[in-house]
Design goal:
The chain has 11 helices and no strands. By secondary structure, it is an all-alpha fold. The chain has 2 domains: 47 residues; 239 residues, MetI-like (MetI-like fold, Orthogonal Bundle), CATH 1.10.3720.
């Protein structure tokens, strides 16, 4: 009888403790969401009346009422497109090699440790690496390609780790069944592993691209221009990006530039959400095909 009462008391204490921590974690989540909503609403309020067609089709200017983001917008699209084209195949290829082909030895463990450590390196370090390697050593100059390759280095660890986790989640019985039917290792990877892991790979790519599009530090390190009055027409042209342009506007004391910075932030958020929405739709499409 006493043991039963003691068990009930311990059970009630555990339930109360679980409920208490649930409330604490819910409160922490609510605070973060509330702060985000306040920030977004404040930015939208400051950008009202400034985010218009003239803003999207004009070059930077010393006069706030004539300034726009045309060069920064196209520079961002150039850099992000090249970054995705470079980082996506490299990240997936590395993950496939490490999970499906590389022997479990000291070299693989060393590579895996370095990749995990690189995922936490500050972005300014990648910027300095890009400056010394791509801009100076490879003589690419302060070009779109140099910026895209710098962001590729920064994005690769996240994509590789996410792709590895997605590949590991594919049941081993699927591989064994394919091998039993006479499939080669590449056929198993191509037709069994990759289709099943692709939704997870896209999730990692979304995270990496979301981080890359808002990074200003690496672009400052390789000296992306702020005042640019032309649109890049090739990967070797000089460029600027939205985070750099926003940073420049928000550092100016005139009130008009503060509104321009808010309009630029709103535009950057719209591009980011559009990229994420497209990637999520693509991921869900492949996930449904995998489940079928």
């Amino acid at each position: 009888m006493k043991n039963g009462l003691a068990f009930e008391r311990r059970l009630k204490v555990r339930q109360l403790t679980g409920s208490l921590f649930g409330v604490i974690f819910l409160g922490a989540t609510a605070v973060g969401i509330l702060v985000l909503i306040i920030l977004v609403m404040d930015v939208l309020k400051d950008s009202k009346g400034w985010l218009d067609w003239q803003f999207l089709t004009s070059y930077p200017s010393r006069k706030p009422e004539k300034a726009g983001v045309l060069s920064a917008l196209f520079g961002t699209l150039w850099v992000m497109t090249l970054t995705a084209l470079l980082s996506f195949p490299l990240g997936i290829g590395t993950a496939i090699y490490l999970e499906e082909y590389a022997p479990d030895n000291r070299l693989k463990r060393l590579i895996q440790t370095n990749i995990s450590n690189l995922a936490g390196v500050p972005s300014i370090v990648y910027g300095l690496l890009g400056l010394s390697l791509f801009v100076q050593a490879l003589a690419l100059g302060r070009s779109v390609l140099a910026g895209a390759m710098t962001l590729t280095l920064m994005s690769l660890p996240v994509i590789i780790i996410a792709a590895q986790e997605a590949i590991r989640s594919v049941p081993e019985v699927h591989r064994l069944g394919a091998y039993a039917l006479g499939a080669t290792r590449w056929q198993v990877v191509r037709h069994i592993v990759l289709p099943s892991a692709f939704p997870g790979v896209l999730t990692g790519t979304i995270l990496a691209m979301s981080r890359a599009i808002g990074e200003a530090a690496p672009m400052i390190a390789i000296s992306a221009l702020v005042y640019l009055t032309f649109i890049p027409s090739s990967p070797l042209d000089r460029f600027t990006v939205l985070p750099i342009q926003i940073f420049n506007w928000i550092s100016r004391p005139q009130e008009g530039f503060q509104h321009l910075a808010a309009a630029g932030i709103t535009l950057l958020l719209f591009i980011l959400l559009s990229m994420n929405a497209a990637a999520i739709l693509l991921r869900n499409r492949y996930q449904k095909k995998t489940e079928e």
